Amino acid sequence: MELDAAKMIGAGLAVIGLSGVGIGIGNIFSSLISSVARNPAARGQVFGLSMLGFALVEAVALYALVISFLILFT
User: Fold this and answer.
1) What is the CA radius of gyration of the chain?
2) Under a CB-based contact definition with an 8 Å cutoff, are residues 56 and 38 in contact?
3) How far apart, in Å, are the Cα atoms of 19 and each of 4, 22, 53, 56, 74?
4) Cα 14 to Cα 31: distance, rounded to the nearest angstrom
5) C-alpha to C-alpha distance for 16 and 22, rounded to whole angstroms
6) pLDDT tens profile 9-38
7) How far is CA 52 from the centre of its chain?
8) Cα 21–chain centre separation
């Protein structure tokens, strides 16, 4: 196997983590909608925590993309 083909396969495998990120973001926002629908008065507390969770999950996506780009271009 040539080096370029191995890099492509490795970058593709590194991006598999993005599927988990999509599922995680969906879970965060579905829980946010559900909790605000049940108790609208708690929107301020729940929204801040959901944005924190979203930022942490999105950081995992950025790390996966950085790793795949490092594999491709080094």
Assistant:
1) 17
2) no
3) 24, 5, 16, 15, 24
4) 28
5) 11
6) 999 998 988 999 999 999 999 999 999 999
7) 13
8) 3
Q: Token digits for 36?
A: 């605000």
For 32, phi then psi, to 5°, come to: -65, -45
Residue with tokens 């491709």: 72
Whose tokens are 């996506």? That residue is: 61
Residue 42 has pLDDT above 90, yes or no: yes
Tokens of 40: 């609208």
For residue 9, give Cα distances in angstroms to 3, 5, 13, 68: 10, 6, 6, 10
Interatomic CA distance for residues 8 and 73, integer angstroms: 10
Q: Are 32 and 47 in contact (CB under 8 A)?
A: yes
Query: Do 58 and 25 form a contact (C-beta atoms < 8 A)?
Result: yes
